[in-house]
Sequence to fold (774 residues):
Amino acid sequence: MSCCGAGPSIAAAEIARARAPAEESVDPSFLREAKDGLSELTLIVPDMHCAGCISKVERSVKAVEGVERARANLTAHKLIIGFAEGAVEPERLVSTVRRAGYEARPVDPAVFKNMADEATGTELIRALAVAGFAAGNVMLLSVSVWSGADAATRDLFHWISAMIALPAIAYAGRPFFRSAWRALSARSLNMDVPISLAVILAATMSLFETIVGAEHAWFDASIGLLFFLLIGRVLDFRMRGVARAAATRLLSLSADSARIVDEDGTTRLVRTGAVKPGAVVEVAAGERFPLDGIVVSGASDVDKSPLTGEPLPERAGPGAGVFAGTLNLTGPVRVKVEKEAADSLLADIIRLMERAEAGKGRFVSIADRAARLYAPAVHALAAGTILFWLFIGVGWHEAVMIAVAVLIITCPCALGLAVPATQVVASGRLLRRGVIVKNGGALERLAGIDTVVFDKTGTLTSGEPAMAGEPKARAEDWALAAALAEKSRHPLARALAREAAARGIAPAALDEVREEPGSGMEGMAGAARIRLGRAGWAGEGERHEGERHEGEMCGQAARGAHSEIWLHREGAAPLVFRFVDRLRPDAAELVKRLKTMGLSVMLLSGDREAAVEAVAAELGIAEWRGRMSPADKVAELERLKAQGQSALMVGDGINDAPALAAAAVSISPASGSDITQVAADFVLSSGELAPVAEAVTTARRARRIIVENFAIALGYNAIAVPVAVAGFATPLIAAIAMSSSSILVTANALRLSLGARPARRPAQPAPALRQAAA
Fold:
């Protein structure tokens, strides 16, 4: 739920204010010295969700005496505070944010990636804007020259063009000039070397022609060439640029500080990395476990969805194992640490993702492979052209101009646009169908898949428990159950409360309502005690059908695909409410369509095998696996790859993120976690599954059009290059020909948009995508 400037939800605010103690010690190692000499503290503030949140957090911190600056970053959910050394205690800054209603914890700033990609994108956009403005104005002046302006007017327009074009070329050409200089410094060549030569030579020769009062100058060709090249570079950057590393998103899960309990019972905040095995840490309700360990005191419900993908929490009492990144829901516990931060299960997930992402870098487009031969071939051609014309007796001026025309006409605009132009059009088509394309290069991989691997919970199913069958409960029982359920945060209790409200049942009035961590809710109806929760606990020791599963929270029975929650009133027989995770409406149709397209379909889930088998049978999926850990899913995908299969992974849970990164290509629903949306190549924004098949169809069409575009680009060069070498093309004609080939490639790509229909139920992208887009 968006805060819309009002701060986080009431529950989150209550949790934040309930932290104990209010100003616990902060390890000095969290502090860094900034470039301006101030001490700097970086905090993770996971509850920030909008501009109003940023404003509120920054204002609250800046009001603290001694704070010089405070800057919040919405995408990374971090707050950087600068203050004079010793002017304010770091503990006070943490407690100030918490008193504003936001959970906050110190984090080592070294874990954040640099913002080089963001700076590169900004530079390209600015360069494109400058080149476009200059090209438009120089073209207008050139029209007057082409129209037959007299010598004085022509020279004036040439000088005005020079004053516009030369500064614009110097600014807009920086991305190409820097790249070319780095290549030459390393004694190598790349595509930007001939591009830079063409632009610089055309501009230099144009300036020379203007100085001597010659008839022709080619400033329009120089800046126009840069403009078209920058269009391709921006498109390529946008489509190739992957969102921030998923490891950064995992910071919202990974607790970078831990509340360690000393021998005298006092607590202090330290860096998670400084906690050694054997130490005892305290984790309050609503906090995430900072490290893997064993519960030594207290009991609570633990949300293990980051590891299992299943939304239903599990009970954790003394002796139970807990893992870093999982959420402590209902009660404070103390945990004896068993593994260092670098060895935690969450760290293993991050490493799996990083390894998989590194593997993706091996996918190289045809255009990139062609670039290896392009630069030396163009240089050799231009040098040969000069030598040929000088050999037959033409002066150096004309020979250089012919060589410049060769460099311009062979500039790889059409080749460079062949892939990104098609990807942009395909992305627009899919967006109208309810698919957000995050990685244009993934379209090529999607076109070649032969297997589709689905997660279960939240992907093929809704991920939310729904009532299964009709409970044998009277209206009075429903009212008692609703009264307890509405005060619980347990998913089954919330589902029960929603069902009661849908039936128009008003909750009963109960006294002394309280929560028993790890067991359920309890209250008094007159003199009768009412309990709602696990089978064994709710039945007060009586043996019930679900009691043999009492290790699972709220009596989740592993019978088939059902989960259970029990109601017991003193003096009455216990009642059971059963729930099931229902299939999405279009799941069966999607599986059927994928099979008709010749694709194999698999189901991999961390859920119980009985539940997975039931879903697989209902959808007609023959190959399935249950109780799969994140590493198991990655191993299965690697097995498929070793067998020569190319797999599409569709998943929504944090536990699916490594598999999404490891698959050849991946899709996540918009309802999925922020991390899966970062790891995935595509995101379903429409709330439907049907667009998965549409994405595959569109990717296959895009692949055919890309092949056609390469043919167009190569055909253009086969015709245009001999014309330029023969001296029949001036730099201006070369620029026009180059631009025309780019337009032709773009027009061919636009064919992909024909027949596109909007998604049936358009929906807004999830918050993570809106933040990434911003």
